[in-house]
Amino acid sequence: MQDTELLRYSRHILLDGIGIEGQDKIIRGKVLIVGAGGLGSPAAMYLASSGVGHITLVDDDAVELTNLQRQIVHRTASIGRKKVESAAETISGINPLVCVSTFDQRADRDFLNLHVPEVDLVLDCCDNFETRQAVNRACVRFRKPLVSGAAIQVDGQVSVYDSRSGVHPCYACIFPADDPPPEVQCSTMGVFAPLVGIIGAIQAAEALKLLSGLGISLAGRLLLLDGRSLEWTELQIARNPHCKVCGPTL
Fold first, then answer.
1. CA-to-CA dists, residue 120 to 2, 14, 26, 131, 211, angstroms
2. Could you state, in order of their start, the residue ranges of all structural domains in the chain?
3. Mean of the per-residue pLDDT values for the chain?
């Protein structure tokens, strides 16, 4: 690390469990963020400020006025621009040492099969069930940790799905692809602005822990947040031996 990097990341370097070695792992880290909206905004900004070396953003939406209530990576001047372009500009302004790759498209199977093998971990910050399932399948296939978050109205959830050990569940163990939940959208149901910030920040924290080796990840645990009372519920989640994605026969 150069002197400017040592100074920029000094508060991480001071931490037991990170230090210079852990920060160097963060700097060499490569992270794919699926979604540059409410969850992807704080996640990307914290990962950038923490020095993650290469951040790949994928999202096919453009910035709208209604996004600005919670998608803090975008600015009023960004309305009409592609979200990945707007987010990359903000990230570069936070930390020009971070390399950002942008893809204005959906994270479909072909995209995931090409890019997931090239990163250390994936953040699922999207807002639709089909994409979540596709991201999970790719992470299981290429043995990459998946940090998944969701938020709607005043409720949020976050977990890490890490199938590398063969012990922890994948996303499909808990949310099977053939049993989709009722479709919910912020445009019709609303979302409490700080809620996505809380969940997205936790996703960034889990990603940094995985990269640096700090602490214990949320693998095998699902955190649920009731935004009305700010009460957390932790659920122990087990691997489904008959899971169609990570099951032993597949």
1. 23, 24, 10, 19, 8
2. 3-152+197-216
3. 95
Is 0.85 surpassed by the pTM of this model?
yes
In this structure, which amino acid lies at residue 100? V
Give residue 180's pLDDT. 75
Amino acid at position 178, single letter: D
The pLDDT assigned to 224 comes to 98
Angle at which helices 83-94 and 40-50 pack, to 10 degrees? Answer: 30
Please give the CATH number for the structural domain made up of 3-152+197-216.
3.40.50.720
Confidence of residue 247 (pLDDT cuts 50, 70, 90): confident
